Amino acid sequence: MKKINWLLVFLNTLCTGATAVFFLFTIFQLTIAKETPFNFKESYNQLRITNIYTINQSETVELKEKIHTLVSDQDVVIIMTNIDLVGLALYDPQGYFKQYPLKTGNYLDFYDPLGENEEIHQILVKENSFLYNSMENNTIMLHGKEYKVVGVYSEDHPLATENTQYIYNFFSTIDLRGEYVIYTENEKLIDEIIILFDNSEYKIKIFELKKENLFITFLNQVITIPLYLTSFIGIIFIYFNYYLYFNVFLSKFSKISSIHLRFGATKFKLLLEYSKEILMSLTIGSGLGSIFYWLFIPLRNEQPPFKIYLLLLVVSISLSYLLFAVVYWFKKFNDTKWRVDYER
């Protein structure tokens, strides 16, 4: 059995951990980037409505009435989430999301969204959420009002988000600040909604979130997320040290390699022999790196399947060995006593 090189084990452990963070997070982010919000296709716009001042409730009511007048009889879906609330506001008179089944109950009604009838006080509750477990007789108290729970949706529903527990009528909201997703093929309608907000006394700022390509998304993630940037720099740093280490490692065999090459050995055969010196250490290091990364996974919300760890193990060993092979192949084993013609 070949002697284990513990320095190589240590380097490959660090490299595997950094590679896991970087590449698995890359896959996760690019998957999100390719997905459209709430299963919409392409005809959607994203807006951010903000306000740092105290909001006059009468202004909010007036603005909601204008929005309702504008969007009534239009093929449009409005979704709004507010960081201060755990609910998702929805206006969907055409029943776009009615096609997705609920766990129990019925979809919301939008017949008279500005009226004081029972439709505006209906909500859908996420299954197994805090609100779901606290409702009594299919009713829940929210913001001093009693809401009737008409349906329950699962975490797999397109409208389910990590930060929301219920879905309510958009026109029952008391605060129009938030992140908007507006689905319509009528671009003129979007412009008119933006003009309404701009001309209101709601004192808002509107930002249109442009859809970026995957490469731009990738660069933004690398630059703006500290853990992501650290792992990226770590990979470069570790592989550079790998390069230096492999050069030093192979220099120890310079004389013996020159002799073998002089008397008929090929570089490929020598590569196979030297590979036996490092493969066990690379495998142990990659295994430890995968295990250490797995130990930190429970702190996250998602657990990659076991096959991902096997793939990570293979990729880590392959990348490290590939670098070793490249360094070896371009290494010149010249010795002052033994001159070798490498052009054979």
Count of folded domains: 2
As a whole number of angstroms, the C-alpha radius of gyration is 30 Å
Structure annotation, total helices: 9
Contiguous low-pLDDT stretches (5 residues minimum) are 335-344
Give the termini separation.
33 Å
What's the rounded overall pLDDT mean?
A: 79
- Summarize the main sheet: 10 strands, mixed
Computed structural class: alpha+beta
- The general outline is elongated
Q: Main attributes?
A:
344 residues; alpha+beta; membrane; disordered C terminus
Give me the secondary-structure topology.
Elements: H1 6-34, E1 44-50, H2 57-71, E2 77-81, E3 87-91, E4 104-105, E5 122-126, H3 130-134, E6 139-142, E7 145-153, E8 166-169, E9 178-183, H4 187-199, E10 205-208, H5 214-224, H6 226-251, H7 254-262, H8 267-296, H9 306-329
Parallel strand pairs: 3-8, 5-7
Antiparallel strand pairs: 1-9, 1-10, 2-3, 2-9, 4-7, 5-8, 6-7
Structure description:
This protein is α+β, with helices and mostly antiparallel strands and 344 residues long. The chain has helices spanning 6-34, 57-71, 130-134, 187-199, 214-224, 226-251, 254-262, 267-296, 306-329; strands spanning 44-50, 77-81, 87-91, 104-105, 122-126, 139-142, 145-153, 166-169, 178-183, 205-208. It has two domains: 6-34 and 217-329, no CATH class; 52-203, no CATH class. It has nine helices and ten strands. A hairpin with a 5-residue loop joins β2 and β3. The protein is elongated. It starts with 5 loop residues before the first helix and ends in a 15-residue tail after the last helix. Mean pLDDT is 79; it is low at 335-344.
